[in-house]
Each structure stands twice: as structure tokens, then as C-alpha cells.
Amino acid sequence: MKLFEGIEQLGHEQVVTCFDKSSGYRGIIAIHNTTLGPALGGTRFWNYKNEDEAFFDVLRLSRGMTYKNAVAGLNLGGGKAVIIGDPSAANRELIFRAHGRFVESLGGRYVTAEDVGTSPSDMDYVHMETEYVAGLATKSGDPSPVTAHGVFRSIEASAKWRWGSASLNGKTVIVQGIGHVGYYLCKELHAAGAKLIVADIRKDVVDTVVKEFGATATTDAAVYAHKADIFAPCALGAIINDDTIPQLKVEIVCGGSNNQLLEPKKHGEALAKRDILYAPDYVANAGGVINVYSELAGWSQERALRKADEIFDTILGVYQTAKDQGIHTYEAADKVAEKRLAAVGALTRTWPQWPRKG
Questions:
Q1: pTM for this model (two decimals)
Q2: What is the Cα–Cα distance from 353 to 137, expressed in whole angstroms?
Q3: Structural domain range at position 38
């Protein structure tokens, strides 16, 4: 993908490429849309195959954040950053301080947080150079419990839409990926009376949820073929594709991973043809960004969890929009986001805009 062609196609406002010789830092910051507020999105540290792959990833992820923040009802735009390199690198201070300086140079247009390959301690290094960072270890910290709670509420809403009741008692749920989000999701599902089938490449985390929640273990290779009520992908993206859809024996797909559909149009339609209800991922997993926003807004974790509870109604609203307009659920989620962006963008701007207080 050519640089400006990609920016134009996805509607970005600004993309910044960053380099620091002393630390070896190479990063890209993408600001997609600031209609609703400053662009917020995490920093991903990943060993990309090449610069083109990193560039495409940051464009795709930042656009996704615009839609996620809009649907979640947050006063935030969409942005994302990627750092190209080995995410297991031990000497992290210089890399993340360099990243913080480039975030600072944007003057508040972009606020960063943790993402794949980064942690709250990395954000503490970023914070040494800028105030435009959230997810700090001393503040909101690990967003996983709030993310998982939002996914749990999405599963309940999906159950209500499909079966007329939000109860998960006796339902069988496949959870693929037992990271922090997957673990907390299993905990809530177990408490709700659901039966769990779990898979992860790490045997120790599978053993943990088997022991604590009475789950049944399976393998990544076999996970799609198990008969269940709900499939909850909580690992990597693009796992709903030509190979996996024919194997699914579930009625609902609703999980915490990002970009679950390899090709949204093609695979969203393929799920619908099989009468499998799909909960758009960026709606279901919005609890993470709600947790980060709670830090910026000064909310308690209890308030963040209450906001994540609202995802239940948001998911039902997406399903109703899909039904009313005769479209697929992944399209309906975009419609909900675009409606809010258009409404806020159309508000009359009054002058003067200065002096600003505070």
C-alpha cells in the first residue's frame, strides 16, 4: 500500500514516522479522527516483517479505535502507535522514553496507552516524557478485568437476542486464548453457570482455568470443531476465516480479540449465512478503552465497570439496527459509530474559541 493512498482510503488525519538513533527506536503514530476528542489508542510493540506491514497495521488499528471510542460513547478520537522491534527486549527505558518524546511533540492530539507487547511499566517510562499517556501502573493499571466484563456483558446481550434470555447458566462457551482478558472472562462465565471449553498455546494457563473453573481443555487445532453455544475468541485477530467458519458448531461468536474477521465483508456474510450471530469485536471489547478513559476522566474502577455494563445495551442496539436496516451486524456497528461522529461533527462551532481556561 502506498503511503498517501492508504491514508486517503482509510480517512486518516495524520501519520507520523519517528526515529531515535541512540535507542534504536522506530515508531509510527497514526491519528485517524479527532472529531470526538483527542485520539486515544495503545502502543503496540511488535517484530513486524517489514515497514509496510507495520504501516498497514497502524492504519487499520487506529481507524478501529475511532469506531470503538465512538460506539462506546466516549469523548475520544481514534489513534494508535506501533514500535517496530523485538517486544521481548530487556532494555526498554530508552525505547519508551523516546516514544514518549514523540507523543509529547503532538501536543495532546494523541494519547497513548498499553497494547500488545507493552505493559503499564512501559507506560511509566513514556510518562517520564509526556502527560499524554494512560494505563499507568499507579492509576488505572491493567485494563483486563474491565475488558473482560464488557465481553461478558456482550455475551449476555447476545444470548438475550438469540434465545430470549441473558442467562448463561448451562450454556457451553469456548474461550480461545487465556491471557489476562480470557482468564477474567472465564471467571465471570463460570460464576454465571456456564460450561467452559478452553484452548491456549500455553499449557500452564489452561491447567489453571481447568483447575479453578472446571473447564475442559482442548487444543488450538481442535477448538473450532467443538460443539458449543458460544465461541469467544480472545487471542489473535483474523481467526474467523475461510478455514475456520465451516468448522464452527456454535450459534454466537462474541469475544475479546480485535479484528476477528479476516475479511469483514466476506466473513461477516459467511457467518450470517450459517445463522451464526456475530458480536462486532470493537463493540464487545470496548471495556479496555473505557478503563483507560476512566483514568483520564478521574473515574473510580467501579464507575468504569458501570460504564462497561452499558455495552449490554449497545450490543442490543447494534443487533436492532442490523435487523431494522436489513444489514449484517458488522455493518450495523459501523453505522452506529458513524452516526455519532456525524452528529458531533455537525455541531455548530461558536467563536471565540479562546482564551481557553485550565
A1: 0.86
A2: 35
A3: 3-63+77-127
